[in-house]
Design a protein that fits this description.
heterodimer; A: mainly alpha; Glutathione S-transferase Yfyf (Class Pi), Chain A, domain 2; 2 strands; globular; B: alpha+beta; Glutaredoxin; four-stranded mixed β-sheet; 9 helices; glutathione transferase activity (chain A)
Chain lengths: 175, 229
């Protein structure tokens, strides 16, 4: 009925708009609620971090829909990227400035997204933060922020990982 | 002291081309360093220049920026091509997301086998004519303005023109059902900075060829088969 600009979801009705395109929606929410840094340069840094996280998230997302003979290789690749490409960058960022948050000494969407991706990675491999002490304390710290803490509790709108038995349904709808 | 932005990438389109377009549209001169060898790439990585060990990388305003989207957003905001407020920015982000997805179908094209190329050409044309072009045609028809967002030239217009030209390279008459887009194409192409970028001798890159594919594979050691999505 014309609600989906490019015939795709996600779609979010917000402030009189029917927004599509994940990044557009996330950008809008982040800017509106002051989670996007204080100036252009902080936004640039947040964007760089967040885009890296999107790339890793995509690897996680595609794992469930891999054919059986490709799953193991995909798993190895995504774990390798998490521990050798992405996590070291965020560990170093925290180490270099010694602050509580990734960018500008202030809570931002980069922190939210990093926590999300850490938790997803741990669902795949529980000890994955073993070599990243600063990410471990980051995880504890951000998880304690009241709004985040509430979201992490049972009964919130946070969703579960896709179940194996639902994968064929997802594929049928979207692919 | 204001140095020109410097782009680090292969001598070809890939993910850097949208950045070249946007800088050119904004009238910003830029320099380029082309990756030809594995050694150059490893040197960049070892020097700590590539945050996630990937290119594109753009040196701009004292930063070594990576991640195409981050770079484009920064340039758009800096040169006033990102709308006048949050809501215009939201629209621009939505439209750019669409053209990004469309160009994504084309980006892998040179890496496909001959047989997959034919299939992918059909996919590109189908997506363009049934999903993306109708959306932008309607936007232009509904407000009747010259530009996609806010009656002002923006990143969304540059990106759409780039996408239109790329799809036309795959099927030259692909705009035949889209009169608004035809007029849009003519209009945006005449903007002086864009017009200059479309002329021979500019830093715009040609359609990728086998040499480009070979260079990318060699530098990135990307020898696996690329499958269409």
């Amino acid at each position: 009925d014309g609600s989906l600009l490019f015939q795709q979801v996600p779609m979010v009705e917000i402030d009189g708009m029917k927004m599509v395109q994940t990044r557009a929606i996330a950008n809008y929410i982040a800017a509106k609620y002051n989670l996007y840094g204080k100036d252009l340069k902080e936004r640039a840094l947040i964007d760089m971090y967040v885009e890296g996280m999107f790339d890793l998230n995509e690897l996680f997302m595609y794992y469930e829909i891999q054919p059986a003979d490709k799953k193991e290789q995909h798993f190895a690749n995504m774990m390798d990227k998490a521990t050798n490409r992405y996590f070291p960058v965020f560990e170093k960022a925290l180490k270099d400035h010694g602050q509580d948050f990734l960018v500008g000494n202030q809570f931002s969407r980069a922190d939210v997204q990093l926590l999300e991706i850490i938790l997803m990675a741990e669902e795949f491999k529980p000890g994955i933060l073993a070599k990243f002490p600063l990410l471990q304390s980051f995880k504890a710290r951000i998880s304690n922020i009241p709004t985040i803490k509430k979201f992490l509790q049972p009964g919130s709108q946070r969703k579960q990982p896709v179940r194996e038995e639902d994968v064929p349904k997802v594929i049928a709808i979207f692919y | 002291m204001s140095r020109k932005p410097k782009l680090y990438y292969f001598n070809g389109r890939g993910k850097m081309e949208s950045i070249r377009w946007l800088l050119a549209a904004a009238g910003v001169e830029f320099e380029e360093e082309f990756l030809e060898t594995r050694e150059q790439y490893e040197k960049l990585m070892q020097g700590g220049s590539l945050l996630f060990q990937q290119v594109p990388m753009v040196e701009i305003d004292g930063m070594k920026m990576v991640q195409t989207r981050a770079i484009l957003s920064y340039i758009a905001a800096k040169y006033n091509l990102y709308g006048k407020d949050l809501k215009e920015r939201a629209l621009i982000d939505m439209y750019v997301g669409g053209t990004d997805d469309l160009m994504g179908f084309i980006m892998m094209f040179p890496f496909l086998s001959a047989e997959d190329k034919e299939k992918q050409r059909a996919v590109i044309v189908q997506k363009a004519t049934s999903r993306y072009f109708p959306a932008y045609e309607k936007v232009l028809k509904d407000h009747g303005q010259d530009f996609l967002v806010g009656n002002n030239f923006s990143w969304a217009d540059v990106h759409l023109l780039e996408a239109i030209l790329m799809v036309e390279e795959k099927k030259s008459d692909v705009l035949s059902g889209f009169p608004q887009l035809q007029a849009f194409k003519a209009r945006i192409s005449s903007i002086p900075t864009i017009k200059k970028f479309l002329e021979p001798g500019s830093q715009r890159k040609p359609v990728p060829d086998d040499k480009y594919v070979e260079t990318v594979r060699r530098v990135l050691r990307m020898y696996y088969d690329v499958k269409a999505n």
